Amino acid sequence: MMHINWQEFTPWSSLIGGAIIGLGVTILVLFKGRIAGISGILGALMQFKNTPKDHYLWRILFLIGLLSSSLIYSLFFTLPNIQIDANIMILILAGLLVGFGTRMGSGCTSGHGICGLGRRSPRSLVATLSFMGAGFIVCFMFLHLMR
Predict the structure, then answer these.
(1) Residue pair 11/32 in contact by the 8 Å Cβ criterion
(2) Is 96 in the same domain as 76?
(3) How far apart are CA 36 and CA 25, in angstroms?
(4) What integer pLDDT is reported at residue 75 of this predicted model?
């Protein structure tokens, strides 16, 4: 049975955050003609020979904005208390699997789920359904079958 903790339910801040993400994605598409897929932005920075020289600055600024957003948020609001119960080896394995899946799926959830679905891309729909479906199955397994 699903339970919603109404004291921590934050629909307004979630709506505002989603609108800010949508605005940022739209600005990047309109002014640079690029998709805001984090793995593609970071991956292109790591491919020095294949990345056009005029692409470095906006990619670096995008990643700085992404990484500094929590710091900026913490200046105005209290950050949520996050507790991670997994051990370090599980976290490393999970990170490697996500990275492998990102390469195999030709993009990440931000590229496919936000930008691709916004452009009505059938490939992104399949990718997003695959990401979400795999996540649902793994969560169900860990929360209900492996206890």
Answers:
(1) no
(2) no
(3) 6
(4) 94
Question: Which tokens hold the place of 54?
Answer: 């005029």
**Which pTM does this prediction carry?**
0.72
CA distance 41 to 146: 36
Mean pLDDT of 98-108: 81
pLDDT at 108: 80
Six-digit token string for 34: 């690029």
Question: Based on the domain organization, do 120 and 144 belong to the same domain?
Answer: yes
Provide the domain limits for residue 139.
Answer: 83-147
Q: Which of 109, 138, 137, 141 is nearest to 125 (CA)?
A: 109
Do 114 and 133 meet the contact criterion of CB atoms below 8 Å apart? no
